[in-house]
Design brief:
The structure holds 2 protein chains of 2 kinds. Chain A is built from 5 helices and 3 strands. By secondary structure, chain A is mainly α. In chain B, helix 7 (about 185-195) crosses helix 8 (about 200-210). Chain B has one domain (about 1-275): Heat Shock Protein 90, CATH 3.30.565. The relative contact order of chain B is 0.13. Chain B is globular. In chain B, a hairpin with a 4-residue loop joins strand 9 (about 160-170) and strand 10 (about 175-180). The N and C termini of chain B lie far apart (about 65 Å). The chains are: A mainly alpha, B alpha/beta. Chains A and B meet through helix 3 and helix 5 of A and helix 6 of B.
Chain lengths: ~100, ~290
């Protein structure tokens, strides 16, 4: 299954509410799909709120191993990937508490 | 001074608008908001301002304007400081809307009511130039600033948004960033959600807010202040948070608390970073 950020959110890739749309799509497909491809379409997101709500929050529900095996990111800008990795690290530290 | 036979209250600002003068700045802030009539922000004695001073005074001026209070300005006598205020975009924001040429060592005073990626980018660029950051460090700085501003806009419930500006002092290898809002403050914000119990003091609430994962979002969040604190600890920098009557300075090795005799509405954050001391926090590469 492929989730296209551009198609799902258009230019609205800033707020948590925007990110929630992607999160809902991922969770909805989680048990039905072997792999979920998130296509960023090379857009610049930069918003921590959006990325955290769309993907970071998955760590509150699923294990890092499950997320890595299920989610594949394509056409994501290096900067956004770096921000996302930062978010994932923070969420993992948060979970350990 | 008089305006239509009514008294204009002069709000005399201290000589230095810096963290150390926070009590005097807050007194001026309270005085301007507490007076039910025309006020004049008197900058005549001011010779120096750090971003924190500019952002706090800007919130006070904006709130006076918002309450339709006649608001006047007495310029600084010091020519260099008057020029500095202009270059920081103060005149543009509050006086004449004229264009200005921001110095390469500053990021002009700006009011945020919604997230502005362009400004964040400029701020990161200033920090990058000032601190000679690596790509990884640049990403981290972007992350912290981004989250800090988003939190400020999302949670402060500020009627005027927030003010931000930054200053690089190359001579002392230091960069200062300040964000101030005029919202409900940290204690009220945490108390509203009841998730963490009831906080009696502003200091207690600030110390809680700095913990990782603490958020006033209904479900999750809280990446902002704890991350900024961690980064600054690695940099040997300082994070100062003012909210209500409390001011807490977070140094890498100690916490310094101060109680002001008067309260500020909302929250003020001041960040001090040093060039050449940045260390990249260890971040696991989750998505490779």
């Amino acid at each position: 299954m492929k989730i296209n950020i551009n198609k799902s959110c258009g230019k609205n890739t800033v707020s948590r509410a925007d990110g929630k749309k992607i999160y809902s799509l991922i969770v909805g497909a989680w048990h039905k799909e072997k792999q979920i491809v998130i296509d960023f379409g090379d857009i610049s997101v930069s918003s921590i709120s959006f990325l955290d709500e769309a993907l970071g929050v998955l760590l509150l529900k699923y294990s890092p191993k499950d997320i890595l095996s299920k989610i594949k990111l394509v056409n994501i800008r290096p900067f956004d990937k770096s921000v996302l990795n930062n978010i994932m690290s923070s969420r993992m530290r948060d979970n350990k508490k | 001074m008089v305006e239509n036979n009514k008294q204009i209250k002069p709000i005399v600002l201290p000589k230095k608008l810096n963290v150390a003068a926070s009590q005097n700045i807050i007194d001026a802030y309270r005085e301007s908001l507490g007076f039910n009539g025309a006020v004049m922000f008197d900058f005549s004695n001011v010779t120096w301002a750090e971003p924190i001073g500019l952002t706090i005074i800007s919130t006070a001026i904006n709130r006076c304007l918002l309450s339709k209070k006649s608001t006047y300005y007495a310029p600084p006598k010091n020519d260099r400081f008057r020029e500095y205020l202009k270059d920081m975009g103060f005149d543009n924001l509050f006086l004449n809307g004229e264009n200005y040429f921001c110095r390469s060592t500053s990021l002009a005073l700006r009011r945020f009511i919604s997230f502005d990626p362009g400004y964040v980018e400029s701020l990161v660029l200033l920090v990058e130039n000032a601190m000679n950051l690596s790509e990884t460090e640049k990403d981290h700085v972007n992350f912290y600033i981004n989250e800090l501003l988003t939190n400020c806009i999302d949670h402060s419930v500020s009627p005027i948004g927030c003010y931000i500006c930054a200053q690089w002092h190359p001579q002392i290898n230091e960069i200062r960033i300040s964000v101030a809002d005029a919202g409900i403050g940290i204690k009220e914000s945490l108390n509203r959600y009841k998730k963490y119990g009831k906080f009696k003091s502003d200091e207690e609430a600030i110390l809680k807010a700095i913990e990782e994962g603490v958020t006033t979002r209904k479900s999750h969040g809280g990446l902002g202040l704890s991350n900024v604190k961690r980064f600054l600890a690695l940099n040997r920098g300082t994070l100062t948070i003012m909210s209500g009557t409390s001011k807490v300075n977070f140094y890498y090795n100690k916490i310094e608390r101060k109680t002001h005799s008067s309260a500020i509405d909302g929250t003020v954050v001041d960040i001090r970073m040093f060039r050449g001391k940045t260390l990249s926090p260890k971040t696991r590469t989750f998505f490779s």
